[in-house]
Amino acid sequence: xxxxxxxxxxxxxxxxxxxxxxxxxxxxxxxxxxxxxxxxxxxxxxxxxxxxxxxxxxxxxxxxxxxxxxxxxxxxxxxxxxxxxxxxxxxxxxxxxxxxxxxxxxxxxxxxxxxxxxxxxxxxxxxxxxxxxxxxxxxxxxxxxxxxxxxxxxxxxxxxxxxxxxxxxxxxxxxxxxxxxxxxxxxxxxxxxxxxxxxxxxxxxxxxxxxxxxxxxxxxxxxxxxxxxxxxxxxxxxxxxxxxxxxxxxxxxxxxxxxxxxx
Length: 263
Known about the structure:
Strand 13 (252-254) and strand 14 (260-262) form a beta hairpin. It is globular, with a radius of gyration of 19 Å. Strands 1-9-8-3-4 form a 5-stranded mixed β-sheet. The chain has helices at 10-13, 87-94, 170-174, and strands at residues 24-28, 32-36, 45-53, 68-74, 76-78, 85-86, 96-100, 108-118, 126-137, 212-213, 228-229, 234-236, 252-254, 260-262. 6% of the residues lie in helices and 27% in strands. The protein folds into 2 domains: 10-195, Coagulation Factor XIII, Chain A, domain 1 (Distorted Sandwich); 196-263, no CATH class. With 263 residues, it is mainly beta.
């Protein structure tokens, strides 16, 4: 069900503010989280991912208050707002998206909120938020500063250019960037140092990982394995160690520090 009223509690997790279900997953800080949708129909769509730390068990936390921080966003990828490639194109084609949990994030219980904002109708944005409970493990100690936190409702006013948006306007026919609403993506700093960049390239793994297909003929003794990343799949980002060669017709484009995608 999509949400139109930004002042209702439904904009938080699409569930009228009810408490947790008792079902929780476990994921390590720095690991990739792959989310699936049963169906999706709108190509001009942005994907935004937020997290909120639960004060104890997430079963007794409804996500109220200024507790949410953004870890990922992707809107218009290429072309114009009216006719270009959006994050929704990849979701429509594959019914999944992969994001990376910040490697420096402190361990604990968190709500993870995926939000799709569809703008296929002029001046009629549709919000599709969903939340899940996860326990984050690892040795990270960072928490986002208060300046990175927002509340739902409250994060959006409805007057932002990316929400009060007409995809059929003359401006959208020409614009090649789209202003994604909400706060900036948290950079992984707070009460811990920022993640350090790798000093040298990471060696390619011997066995291709998920979403990587090999196009190599029988390798010679001295040749490195050849790999290829399918269009819309991940090809780079901090902590990523997989293949970085995009399939023909696509290039690797960064979307923040933790995620690059073949587009």
